[in-house]
Amino acid sequence: MKSHISTTINGDPVEFLCDPSQTLLNVLRNDLGMTGTKEGCGSGDCGACSVLFDGELVCACLVLGVEAQGAEIETVEGVATHDQLHVIQEKFLEHAALQCGICTPGLIVSTKALLEENPSPTEEEARYFLAGNLCRCTGYDKIIKAVMDAAATMRQGA
Amino acid sequence: MSEAREFKHIGQRTIRPDGFDKVTGKANYGADLSLPGMIWGAILRSPHAHANITKLDVSRAEANPDVLAIATFEDFPSVNAAAQRDGTQRDGMMDTACNILANQKVLYHGHAVAAIAARSEAAAIAALDLIDIEYEVLRPVLSIDDAISAQAPILHETMMTQGLAEPATKASNISARMELKKGDIEAGFAAADVIVERAYDTPTVHQGYIEPHATTVVFNENGPSMIWCPTQGHFDVRARVAQLLNLELGQIKVVASEIGGGFGGKTTVYLEPVALILSRKSGRPVKMEMSRGDVFRASGPASASQSLIKVGAKMDGTITAMQATLHYEAGAFQGSPMGPGCMTVFTPYDVENLYVEGFDVVVNKPKVAAYRAPGAPQSEFAAEMAVNELAKKIGMDPIEFRLKNAAKEGTQTIYGPKLKVVGLEACLEAAKASPHYNAPIPENVGRGLAAGFWFNIGGQSSVIINLNPDGTGTIIEGSPDIGGSRASMQMMAAEILGVAPSSLNPIVADTEHVAYNQTTGGSRTTFATGMAVVEAAEDIVEQLKARAAAMWNVTAEQVDFKDGVAHNLTGEDQLTLADICASAEKTGGQISGRANINARGAGPSFAVHICDIKVDKETGKTDVVRYTAIQDAGKAIHPSYVEGQFQGGAVQGIGWALNEEYVYSKDGIMENAGFLDYRIPLASDLPEIEAIIVEVPNSFHPFGVRGVGETGIIPPLAAVGTAVAEAIGQPISSLPCSPPKILKLLMSAQ
């Protein structure tokens, strides 16, 4: 028996039917066609499916679809406005902070959560906050540089 | 050749053309394609490491209304029972087929046995329980020592060791032996004042790409079938699927999706042929995805190894002899990278007397796949550790010791050719001058340094560049982009054509829209496909000159083309590339450039890494406190992505050295098949990775490029190992340097 869920994703009202055992990640990717949120492990270890759930950073693979009832969800698809990239996205590109790019959506969302919570992180704070987002390509060096630069730029703009 | 050249675009740090899609979630990876009417496939995997399948009955599953197709080994027409009986079996395909779907015997925990396609993923997984299967469990073989012992169960009853002096007479778990030599090894050791001899081992590790294998396919009886998958080589996916299913190449189209990491692990096929069988049987598009556990248990990994190294030197620092005996685990089927391991082990050294013997050993673990410089990290780890120990024994600085013996232009390699111009000495000098090496070693910290060598390859690449009537264009290449190579292609074409890189859109075309390209591997793409891009752009320049000549009524020889503008040498006239494209209709139609090459002259890349490690003496926990990666790029087309290769390789090597390993139960069950327990490095584990690009141009490439993708994973193992040894004051001979192991060493010393 599927449940009828009403939720908000990236500001849009969205309704869907889902099985009680389905994860939010599965709903986003397979039912709503929102494949920007990636699956790397399905067990909350890699952070590729990071989304904001009522403003809180979560792994969409650890949230059930039915829990989205009445919630506000933000995914990577909602970070840029039209064709205007968010500063975090611009800095990831400027600093070459991605190689294959599969971890990038999760890292962009996590970085947004970090900088909303702490606009002036130290490098160590950034490294610990993002420790739940695995990247196998970059060695994290350029990611951290992009995050620190984004933080500085956002502070100037604020 | 290219030292003095001034470049307009090459060497700049442009924004990658595929970047926008990747930071906004628009880029489509392996699991991101769904099609109308699509159904899902799932795979039944062995719970045992080694067993005979005594019963496999799919009739109950077949009867389930949700199930639309089932696949087993018998569905591979090129190797199945009928093909074996009729003698029509395809050579060389048996192991590949048996690895994808087991034939009567399972050889590792997670080995695929059968596949089911059903209307939903959940239904497919549930239906796996309807397959009736019984096993006769056999004793698993889980280590090299066990595999080569006289009592070991034999994995393959027909496997005879190749490469022995006398032909083998009985089956063995050693599939092959190889031997390489140079000079007189006995005389070399006799001339040595000091000798170091030590055994080393490294664990089974995984490439650890974040994107699991996935595919969506459509079988088409009347036209090409379509396979969408993340792969480093879609042309090779096409070839393997064609061989397994007895199809012609033209009957299959493979579309390379964006690829979420590969590192060598996405150079073979697992799901694709199975999905195509399921699609053919069901008449539906089929999607399959591996779970993370499946990825660990049944794809990749890289060989565990055992190495015995002996190195001798005179007190003045001259190495007189180097000897290695190397054993590599191949996993369940033969084919470890034992060959390149033997060839690379001592190549950083110009030494007269060398002897190397290698063995390829099968064990009950997944069949290994390539992993960044396959074979080299294991053997060079052992060699570099021994070299560092020897340098210490004779009281020489590890850089000076290496400079005294460094491979250079003209050095005779053990595997055949003499080295052309190479950058090892330049990397060592850069290390000597680096801020890191000149910084004092902090208290409780050990410092290690190591070198690394990888050949790099060239090979076949095909490129088409189409110009549009407004002067913009498309670069159509066939090398899947795993680390930003499209940016380099754009920059190289822009340099030749004299236009803005962003005016040229590079795309990785499917197997129908560009001619054959070798797999993205061997650090070949920026070198070989880059060379094809340059040649295709040069082809366009010739055409632009001819078109301008036609517009001016002069000969092509009377036209010069520079920085995107054609000049009439008989007058003052000028035409930009865009002007010529705008008039193409009147001068013979639109303009395309083309190159189909087999690139020769790949330049080896050497690297030197420096690592500082702090060890907590109470827990054995290690912390990398400073790290520098120095490597010869020949010429860095896009320095940021070159640095990224150095940094990424370094961190994979750090993971290999400090944490990563497959943990098996005594029954051969993999106990850490997830990212929580198989712990790859996290952002919080690491310091900044300082990257220093050395540029010793490769004269065989128009801009001097050497491949940079692989070498960077080689030096970390010994740089880290040596740093740990220095920090704890004891030799390291076994990776990973995980806390329990280090604690044991610390306690045994007390």
List the helices and strands and how they pair.
The complex is a heterodimer of chains A (158) and B (750).
Chain A lengths: L2 E7 L2 E7 L5 H8 L18 E4 L2 E4 L12 E3 L12 H8 L9 H14 L5 H7 L11 H17 L1
Helix pairs in contact in A: 2-5
Chain B lengths: L18 H6 L14 E7 L5 E7 L1 H4 L4 E5 L9 H6 L7 H7 L4 E2 L5 E7 L2 H7 L4 E6 L6 H4 L26 E9 L2 H6 L3 E9 L11 E5 L6 E5 L4 H12 L6 E5 L15 H11 L3 E4 L2 H7 L6 E9 L5 E13 L6 H7 L8 E10 L13 H18 L4 H8 L18 H10 L1 H4 L6 E10 L4 E9 L5 E5 L7 H13 L6 E5 L16 H28 L6 E4 L2 E4 L5 E3 H6 L1 H4 L4 E8 L5 E11 L6 E11 L6 H20 L30 E6 L20 H14 L10 H11 L1
Parallel strand pairs in B: 1-12, 10-11, 14-15, 18-19, 25-26
Antiparallel strand pairs in B: 1-5, 2-4, 2-6, 3-5, 7-15, 8-13, 9-10, 9-12, 13-14, 16-24, 17-18, 17-23, 20-21, 21-22, 24-25
Helix pairs in contact in B: 11-12, 12-21, 16-17, 20-21
Task: Describe the protein.
The complex is a heterodimer of chains A (158) and B (750). By secondary structure, chain A is an alpha+beta fold. Chain A has 2 domains: 3-78, Ubiquitin-like (UB roll) (Roll), CATH 3.10.20; 87-157, Orthogonal Bundle (DNA polymerase, domain 1). Chain A has 5 helices and 5 strands, in the order ββαβββαααα. In chain A, strands 2-1-5-3-4 form a 5-stranded mixed beta sheet, with helices on both faces. In chain A, α2 crosses α5. By secondary structure, chain B is α+β, with helices and mostly antiparallel strands. Helix content of chain B is 28%, strand content 24%. In chain B, the strands form 6 sheets. Chain B has a 7-stranded mixed beta sheet with strand order 3-5-1-12-9-10-11. A 5-stranded mixed beta sheet of chain B has the order 7-15-14-13-8. In chain B, strands 16-24-25-26 form a 4-stranded mixed beta sheet, with helices on both faces. The radius of gyration of chain B is 27 Å and the shape is globular. At the A-B interface, α2, α3, α4 and α5 of A face α1 and α20 of B.
Please provide a brief summary of the model.
The complex is a heterodimer of chains A (158) and B (750). With 158 residues, chain A is α+β, with helices and mostly antiparallel strands.
